[in-house]
Fold Brix domain-containing protein.
Amino acid sequence: MGKPNQARAHAKRAAKRDEDQMVENINAAVHPKIAKLDLQMKDRSQRTFPKWTNRQRTLVFSSRGISFQVRHLLQDLRVLMPHSKKDVKMDRKDRLNEIVPEICEMKNCNNCIYIEMRKKKDVYMWMSKMPMGPSVKFLVTDIYTMSELKLTGNCLRGSRPLLQFDQAFDSQPHYQLLKEILFQTFATPNQHPKSKAFVDHIFSFSILEDRIWFRNYQVTWKEPGKVGKDSEMVLTEIGPRFCLQVIRIFEGTFGGPTLFENADYVSPNMQRSMLRDEAAAKDPRRRDQRVSRRRKSCGTSAQRQ
């Protein structure tokens, strides 16, 4: 029973080949352009394209209770990073070293940007490599989203950015580590499926006053002589803007041994307390009231003990 079936299948394949050859001959005889188009389609199907080898993906999400400005900043980062993935807001703010790696494993991400907000005022950003670390905790200040700035710059959505780092990143070891973390987090891999093979904007990371300043610029090329004698490239800011102050660098994911701690960091709570003390020092009545409140609190705590 097997031999007749094989012979029948072989006859069908031979008839199909003869039919295709006859169609090609007719097309070539009727119109040469059709035959040329068929050859181009065959060459294109046999052509080998470069592979997507650097499979870096970044998970960008936040905790609950963030403001509308932080939510817009998250949206801007996702738009500017084609290799990013998003997830729902997290309800819990503890046990991040256990929960976030599981979410990244489910999303198949090896980088993470997690933003949380405390007291509706203070914004903190975590950047971490998955699943073993290291991780960095930043205080985010001076946030301006693209919708707020309304700058004239523009870029193609999904295009790959160039990353520009200040020379100060090579001056100290912790800055070198931060440079590598920022590069692997924000750089779009080559041949990523959601990216476009086009470079028209730059991510700039500059260090000033022990803080990292982020800027996004559009790159435009002009003809020589219109801009200046030597410059042919013009940068136009797109947005968003934000500033990162390093708090601590950990060896693990969202915790672990401390690799670096910023000795100049002052928490926002301490800054607000210092401002209140300065205002109270100018008014004697407020100063006396503050001292009496502190004495009462100390007395009640001593009685409880």
About this structure: The chain is about 40% helix and 25% strand. The longest helix spans residues 2-30. The first strand starts at residue 58 and ends at 62. Helices lie at 2-30, 32-46, 68-80, 96-107, 146-149, 173-186, 268-282, 284-304.
